[in-house]
Design brief:
With 454 residues, this protein is of the alpha/beta class. The protein is built from 14 helices and 22 strands. The strands form 4 sheets. Strands 1, 2, 3, 4, 5, 6 and 7 form a 7-stranded mixed sheet that branches. Strand 19 (400-402) and strand 20 (407-410) form a beta hairpin. Helix 1 (24-38) runs parallel beside helix 2.
Length: 454
């Protein structure tokens, strides 16, 4: 019989309300279960700025150590710092990593993300469900006679040097950047990088603050973009950059304060990575594809389509040894970053690209936006998502269909993807055309009419 997992255990991580669904007692048990499941001997951990994070991380550390593992504690950090520790310190015995974070969930939530040796992700199928079963059962062996040791590791030099390794600092041109950390964890890393870069920084919401006075940072939401856009315009900046709370995603505004859809960033970053490694493989997700495919092929790269979601992308990147993978949701993955996503590497690469080409960001993306205008991802709550998808498939049955992730249908002059949310009764729609904004509006409205008539 299938065991019931605690409510905070999701498909790829842990997320839940504190303390009802996630608390210090459970954090201790998670530490014990993690060591028991994976046999780890040295685990790198850290936490985001949420008010409950430090206490949860301390309890997690105790559980890991009582299970016999040593702990390297990074303290306040971003998710990617844990990834970096897990792949860069393998020779020093690190064989696991856990970050206490709830990313962009509401302030009363917290959670954890897990990796094992080499920063390989842990999901329900690869051990997370087993950990959940042990936590629910609550029975563990007696703590080991000699608990593991904890070492504080707050020197970020190696991580910052790794980030700077993706660019030629000497070739960078002076620029003014608006950076909005959203009172999350990004500010401290920006400050360390700023010492090495020829840029002027205009800092917004820079200090970490777990009360999130401006709301939980999630620039994927249109209502969270205005402050950065206004600052770019008022300061005459060359670029605007913002992050979510644990900075594994970053978002861009051009010099006019125009928000740039993540889809166009995928092609920009792909071209920058192919500049370093011509002919490399580039992964991209099926929601929006034409711009990425065309530009990657144009510069001699090899585009590889893959299912949306970090676990799928990381697995496929390893298999293909692709140099870069990008999702329109602002997750950007790099082979040399343990095949993991980073919110710091992308903006360094964009600044490098702007410096090398001597152009503004708007000049680099306007042609893409005109050639392949997009609807942006539109979410609709529906009672029966499968029925709606079946109806759309029937109506647009004469198009070229793909089922890599949800349903994609392509015609000569437009294409769309519709897919179910993994966690909510939502359908997510993306539409793009070949340079026809009128057709984009028409087809988007046509599809939404079908989706929302129920």
């Amino acid at each position: 019989m299938e065991k019931t997992l605690p409510a905070c255990f999701k498909a790829y991580d842990i997320r839940g309300k504190v303390p009802e669904e996630l608390n210090v007692d459970m954090a201790y048990k998670i530490g014990r279960a993690y060591v028991q499941e994976f046999g780890t001997r040295k685990v790198v951990i850290g936490h985001d700025i949420r008010l409950s994070s430090k206490e949860l991380a301390e309890s997690l550390s105790r559980g890991l150590r009582d299970g016999g593992a040593d702990v390297l504690h990074l303290g306040l950090c971003g998710t990617e710092e844990i990834y970096h520790g897990a792949f860069s310190m393998v020779d020093e015995g690190v064989d696991g990593g856990i970050i206490v974070t709830a990313s962009h969930n509401p302030a009363n939530y917290n959670g954890m993300k897990f990796v094992v040796k080499g920063a390989r992700p842990v999901s329900g199928d690869s051990g997370l469900n087993k950990i959940g079963e042990m936590v629910a059962d609550g029975t563990f062996p007696e703590p080991v006679p000699q608990p593991g040791a904890e070492q504080k590791l707050e020197d970020k030099t190696r991580y910052v040097e790794h980030l700077l390794g993706y660019i030629d600092v000497q070739s960078l041109q002076p620029m003014k950047l608006v950076v909005n950390s959203g009172n999350g964890c990004a500010g401290g890393i920006v400050d360390l990088l700023a010492k090495k870069l020829p840029f002027e920084f205009v800092r917004l919401n820079h200090e970490p603050d777990g009360t999130f006075p401006r709301g939980v940072p999630n620039p994927l939401l249109p209502e969270k973009r205005q402050e950065t856009a206004d600052a770019v315009r008022s300061h005459g900046a060359d670029l605007g950059i913002a992050w979510d709370g644990d900075f594994d995603r970053c978002f861009f505004w051009d010099e006019n304060g125009q928000f740039i859809e993540g889809y166009y960033l995928v092609a920009l970053l792909a071209m920058e990575m192919l500049e370093k490694e011509p002919g490399g493989k580039i992964l991209y997700d099926p929601r929006l594809t034409w711009n990425t495919e065309e530009l990657v092929q144009k510069v001699g790269g090899r585009p590889v389509i893959t299912k949306t979601g970090h676990a799928f992308i990381k697995e496929r990147m390893r298999k293909e040894q692709s140099i870069y993978g990008g999702e329109m949701s602002a997750h950007h993955y790099f082979r040399d970053f343990g095949f993991c996503d980073s919110g710091m590497i992308p903006w360094l690469l964009v600044c490098s690209l702007l410096s090398r080409k001597g152009k503004k960001l708007s000049e680099l993306v306007t042609e893409m936006m005109d050639s392949y205008p997009v609807s942006g991802e539109i979410n609709s709550t529906v009672d029966d998502p499968d029925r709606v998808i079946a109806e759309i498939e029937e109506k647009y049955g004469d198009g070229e269909k793909s089922y890599i992730d949800g349903l994609s249908v392509a015609f000569p002059d437009y294409r769309f993807n519709i897919r179910k949310s993994n966690t909510e009764p939502l359908l997510r729609l993306n539409v793009e055309t070949r340079g026809d904004k009128g057709l984009l509006r028409q087809k988007t409205e046509e599809l939404l009419a079908i989706i929302r008539k129920s």
